[in-house]
Every structure is written in C-alpha cells, then in structure tokens.
Amino acid sequence: MSDFAATAQESERLQALAESYREPLSPESLGRDSLLPLADLASWANARAKPKAHLWAGRIAKDEVAKLDGPGGSNKSTAGHQLVICRAAGLPFLGEDVEPGNSIYATAEDDFDRLQWVHERQCANLGIDPQSLVGKVHLSSVRGRLNNELATFDGQGRIEPTRTFEELKDTIDATGSDLVVLDNVAHLFTGNENDRAQVTAFINLLYSLKVTVLLVGHPNKSGDTYSGSTAWLNAVRSQLVIEKPDPLDPDARLLRVGKANYARSDTEIRFRWHDFSLWLDDEMPDDYAEELAKASRAASENEAFLACLRKRAEQGDGRHVGATPGPNYAPTQFEGMTEAKGLDRQALRRAMERLFTINAIETHTHRNTAKGRDVTIIREVKP
After folding, report:
1. Rounded to an integer, what distance in angstroms lies between the CA atom of residue 137 and that of residue 106?
2. What ranges make up the beta strands (E) of the chain?
3. By its UniProt entry, which SUPFAM superfamilies does this protein fall under (predicted)?
4. What does the pLDDT average to over 345-351?
5. What is the pLDDT of residues 234-262, one digit of tens each?
6. Residue 114 pLDDT
7. What integer best gives the mean pLDDT of the chain?
8. DSSP letter string over 37-86?
9. Contact between residue 98 and residue 79 where contact means Cβ atoms under 8 Å apart
10. Which pLDDT belongs to residue 105?
C-alpha cells in the first residue's frame, strides 16, 4: 500500500471518530427525571469530604437505619427509651456521648401508663426534671391499634406506604425530631421477613424519612441475632445486640456491635438493669452497689465450693464429702484446698447452704466399696 493510501485511510478513520463524538449527556439535556442521581465531582474538587457523623458515638451513625436486637427480657425497650431521654438532656448514654436533639420513641408493645412509669423512673435515676424534656422527647404508643404496619406489599411484591407511615412522617415534621426509635419490627413490618426484596424495600422506605432510625427487633430461635432474611442485617448500616451474659446474674447485660459500617465492630459495653434503667457499674446507687458486691462475693464462694467438690469427685472413693459436721464435713475438708481460693470454712458453709437452696447440689447415698458400707455424700446436680 502506498503512503498516500495509508494517509487517506487514517484521515477517514479520524473523521469517523469525530462524527461519532457527542457531547456528554447532562440532566439539562435529557431532563432530570431521566438520569440516576449523579455526584457533582466538580464541586467535590473544591470541598473537603467529612467523616460520617454519629448520633451515638461509634455505634449509631447519623441519618442511617440501625437495628437493636436481643432476646426477650434483655431490656431493648428500656434502652431505646433511655437513649432519647439522655439525648434530650445532653447526657451520655452508657458512658458514650450522644448528639443532643429531639427524638421520637414509638412503641407498639407498651401502653401510655407503662411509658409514664418507665419515663418517671428513668428521669429520677438520671437526675432529670421531666419538665425539661417537654418538646424534646416525644413518646407514642400504638398498642392495641389495628393496622400499625408502615407498609404493605401488592401482588407483584411492590411496597406501598400506609397511613401509619404518613402519620410517622407528619409527626417527625411536627416535632422536629431527627431520631426515631421504632419498637418493634414485628408490629411495623407485616411482609415476609424471609423475603430479601421485601425486607430491603422496607429498610429503604425508612431511609426515605431522612432521619436516624433505630429499629428494635428480636432474634430467631436458631441462635442468630436477628430474625428473618439476612437482608435485615445487610440493609442497615449498624446492628447493636443486647445479651444477658450470665445466667446466674439476671440483671447483667452486655451490648456489643454486631455490624458497623462506619466504626469498629469489636466494641462492647457491660452494664446492668436496675429500677427500670440501665447503669454502668460505677454509676450504680450506693445501696444497690453494696447489694451487688454481696451477690458477687456469694457467686465467688459458690463457684469455689463447686470447684472443690468437683476435684474431690475426680479423686474417687474415699474422697467424697458430706453435709453434716464430722470427719468428712465438706467446709472443713475444702478449707485449705487450692480450689477454695483462700476461703475459710464459714464462707464455704454459706456457699454449701446456698447451693442446696438453689438445687445446685444434693445429698446422695453412695456405696463405699473400700469400707463396705453406704455413706451419704454431696454431689453436684447436673443441668
């Protein structure tokens, strides 16, 4: 091919490219409804990005949907109510800073009488004048009202907001609230909790409120921290989980971060329930702290007694102990054992009596083959 022919071919290619070039599409050229929302990168070049703001430091991001899950009786409702009170009063919640502001706590589980009772107790425990919260804390109960769901789904699975959702929007506007605690999801979502599309649509509906939403929920029976589709966890930006970590301590609680898109997820807070409020250990009233210390000592004594009992049981015949004073009296035999952790016989006797009372140990007639006779011994009751 000659140089002239090659040059002509290149010219034709360049002209074709020029004719195919079009100006970039813009919202103005096509109409704003024709495009997905686009970031204005030109304005980004002239402004610094800001880190994600948090309503509750490290745990609840501002203007996001978060979940608060936990088994029945773990005091999720107490937590939601106390959070909005602390926020209105400018107080930390469980030792962590909360952004001040107006909030709504809406429950489908408690009536107004119950709300008033808890509200009064929490204000008293936090040292807050309830009058100071007027206009900042907004409590709503829809218990017993029909059709509390926030949305329904048609035959094609498309979501339809309900009158209750519109009431919620109007209440947010009227109160100037930017935090809404919804208690709980079982009353407000009546779709199929295992349908990922419906769950995701519901969470997106909550995002349309353009406020921070804390959605209270329950775990399932399989041991997961939430019930239904994994979309419940995937669609929200953070998940908080309240647990009851110690079966022997009914008031102990543990809050951990199950998911956090904007913070670390390996943090936890240990606290207690007392008098319809949640307390850190160093915030407990003096009288209750004293009771708690006694209970802690008793639990330690109980565990030491059981550790001694297990050790002697491992050693076999001739090493068993009894419950009545004598050569094999358990508190006397256990005193001085490593497992007793320095407890004297009086402390071990108290532990033995408590353990009998709660049916953790029992007496049992045992055949001592070495002595050729029956003896009555103490043994641990296995759950």
Report:
1. 11
2. 54-56, 60-61, 65-69, 103-107, 137-141, 151-153, 159-161, 179-183, 212-217, 238-243, 252-260, 268-274, 277-279, 361-368, 373-380
3. P-loop containing nucleoside triphosphate hydrolases
4. 95
5. 889 899 999 999 876 788 999 999 888 77
6. 97
7. 88
8. ----HHHHTTS---PPPEEETTTEETTSEEEEE--TTS-HHHHHHHHHHH
9. no
10. 98
What is the end-to-end Cα distance of the chain in Å, rounded? Answer: 94
CATH code assigned to 54-284:
3.40.50.300
- The identity of residue 152, as a single letter, is T
Q: What residue ranges do the domains of the chain occupy?
A: 54-284, 289-380
Q: Which two tokens stand for residue 261?
A: 């898109």
H/E element holding 353?
helix 345-357
* Exposure of 177 in the CB half-sphere (CA atoms within 13 A): 30
Distance CA 383, CA 380 (A): 9
Helix and strand tally (H, E) in the chain?
Answer: 12, 15
The CATH number of 289-380 is which of 1.10.10, 2.60.40, 3.30.70, 1.10.1740? 1.10.10
Name the DSSP letter for residue 328: T
- The β-bridge relationship of strands 238-243 and 252-260 is antiparallel
Whole-angstrom Cα Rg for the chain: 32
- Beta-bridged to residue 9, according to DSSP, are none
Q: Please, which pLDDT band fits residue 226 given cuts at 50, 70 and 90?
A: low
Give dist(CA 140, CA 180) in Å, integer.
Answer: 11
Phi, psi (degrees; rounded to nearest 5) at 115: -60, -45
pLDDT value at position 277? 96
244 vs 75: CA distance, rounded Å: 10
CA 106: distance to chain centroid?
17
CB count in 10 Å sphere of residue 295: 13
At 132-172, the pLDDT tens digits run 999 999 999 999 999 999 999 999 989 999 999 999 999 99
Which tens digits make up the pLDDT trace of 2-33? 454 556 666 666 565 555 545 555 555 555 56
pLDDT at 211 over 90: yes
Q: Per-residue DSSP letters for 182-207? A: EE-HHHHB-S-TT-HHHHHHHHHHHH
More confident residue, 157 or 368: 157
pLDDT class for 225, splitting at 50, 70, 90?
A: low
Question: 10 Å Cβ neighbour count for 223?
Answer: 6
